[in-house]
Automatic annotation (TrEMBL):
One of its GO terms (cellular component) is endoplasmic reticulum. The keyword Iron applies. Residues 33-141 form the Fe2OG dioxygenase domain. It comes from Adineta steineri. Keywords: Dioxygenase, Iron, Metal-binding, Oxidoreductase, Vitamin C. This is Fe2OG dioxygenase domain-containing protein. The keyword Amino-acid biosynthesis does not apply.
Amino acid sequence: YFIFSAWLRNEDSSVVSRLSRLIEAVTNLSMRTAEDLQIANYGVGGHYEPHYDFARKSEKDAFLGLGAGNRIATWLTYLSDVEQGGATVFPVVGGHLKPKKGSAAFWYNLYASGEGDYNTRHAACPVLIGNKWVANKWIHERGQEFRRPCLLDPMA
């Protein structure tokens, strides 16, 4: 994988705290049960295999220690440009995001019903030239009951 990461709490830096407030304002999701901000660096060759950010039914204890339910959503911020490679790809839907410093991506990992959205399977392609820096914020179910848009179709 060739990834190095660290976790930052809101109390660690005013920048981290401001980012959490921004994410809350943009998504209308509470950050009270979100994980700490993960900062990750992918050097040359750094990549991440296809995966889901949510825990599948077979992984029912994956986030038990957090006491906040499953990961309802993901916010990914690109902290650097990458000269070549390093795209985030979503193979099921055929989409990709090229790292661009200052840009961000947001997606729901779970349907309104709480079921995992298998269309969110994603990967980080290998960095070929340069370095890729990202910040991940994983937002959990607890505390979102009245914040997520109400849809008639629970599988939307």
